[in-house]
Amino acid sequence: MRSLRAGVAPGVALGAVLGAALAMGLAGCKGDGDAEQPPRAPDVTAALAAYDAPKGSLTADSAPELLEALVAEAKAFEQAAVLFTAFQDVIGGLGGSSETSGGQALRVRRQALSGAFTGWARIEYVCPGLDANVIDRGQGIIEAFGQLKGGKLDPLIWGEAKRCALPDADGRVLRFSADMLFETTRQLVAFGGSLTDADGITAPFGLDVLILEGGFSHRVSLPDGDVVLTWAGGTDFDHIDVEDRAGAWSCGVTLAPVGGTCSGPDGADVSF
Amino acid sequence: MRRTILLTAALLAAAPSAHAWQDTEPATDWSALTLHQNEWRMGLFRGQYGILEPLQIGTQWLPWLLKVPNVDLKWTVWSDRTWSASVSGAFFTVNAQDFDKDAEDIQFTMVPIELTGSWRGDALAAHLRLSYTVVKTTGDASVESADTDIKGVAAVSTGALGLSGEWHLSRSFALVTELAASIYQDAKATGESSSQIDPRTTLELHAGGSADLKSGRLANGTLSAFWSWATFNLKLGLGYGNYQVPTLHLFAGDPVVFPDLDMFWRF
Questions:
Q1: Nearest residue in chain B measured CA to CA from A123
Q2: Is residue A15 part of a domain?
Q3: Residue A50, in any domain of the structure
Q4: Angle B6-B10-B12 (CA atoms, 0-180°, nearest 5)?
């Protein structure tokens, strides 16, 4: 009777073969289920914190400065509205609106990958220039990114306008080269870059606002920190609420000449 | 009825030529042991050969019929009269174009790995087996249409625990029970799609996800009669539980009763 086999000596080749099989099996998990990583999302924590807890102070000296800064940015708001309108169309393609074909496309993918999935989306929009009927990448593009977490689109959408030509209200073309982001939970919109106007003049272009129900909030930097101005929208600056480190102020202002009165949180008034 | 009883008695009887299989030719299918060097095992579902005393190589026939090349290795890393341990691995691969030349160039690769520990007493034996299997695709599954292009890869992995027992009732007959339970089984996938939303707008999605394929308790068990004569071996039994895809250890469906059949020759 043959005895049951005794202890066996492991061979190097044998170990290598089985080791390779084991390694392959283990390697099978690597990378599966992990989507290619997108460009790094911008950090909006500081920007949102600046709106939540402004550090600057409204004083009789700083109030005119604030108002002048706001008036000076009025044109930038109009220009930003042009770019933001286009950006909103792009965001609609990322699934923000179920009525858009892009939203449908995203829903279809969600169904195909039912369950918790992560990843990212990129959307590219060819800017129209002055002729909405012509598709010409020479008119620049807007590129936007969004992250998918747990099957849902993350609230932060960011991207870049790359020499994007858009018509302004007067039918003249504006070319934007700017980073942009839209945080949809707080409705924070931010742009930063440059703008070339119809006359070919290029200037820095940048601002950030919170879009509110019936108005905007915009932070303005003062030497001692930011304060947040809130108004009804557009360039209607007759009444402005100001949030500074002390609290909320309510201001009635005039632009020509610059002046007004602000009522402070402790009944204090500031006239300028 | 009488014929059945006689047949049963004949099968259970210890024929003089029967292998003392529980001593010299121990079962290798569910244990940590391998064929002897230069020993063959040719059966209904698989063929195996003992390359060295502790190492066997084998293949399964059915996958070949489905154009799936496959090879398996089993190595008894340690053994004495009572205890033994083995590690085994297999490799299955197939390309979708093997079935359809117009199909995408997708290679499916399956690698099952098992660790088995065995205990053998005089009339009883028990074997514990831990299995891990991964199925992975390489190459892109691609679906293209006028305005959409979808590509993706996927992988399925499973883990299972198996417990087998032998009760030797005679020198040529044993009862064999096998229990298998799923530890986990999940699927992962990554995909890319590109859609032309309108003439100006293109949407790309890069998504990865995973899904737990294990819902509730998934297990099965079989009780089989196992005869081992000089060269011929026959296993007949019944099982109950969730269907288990062979080798992949993927459990699916509602519990059912299923047959257990195998026959092979060792020489």
A1: B203
A2: no
A3: yes
A4: 115
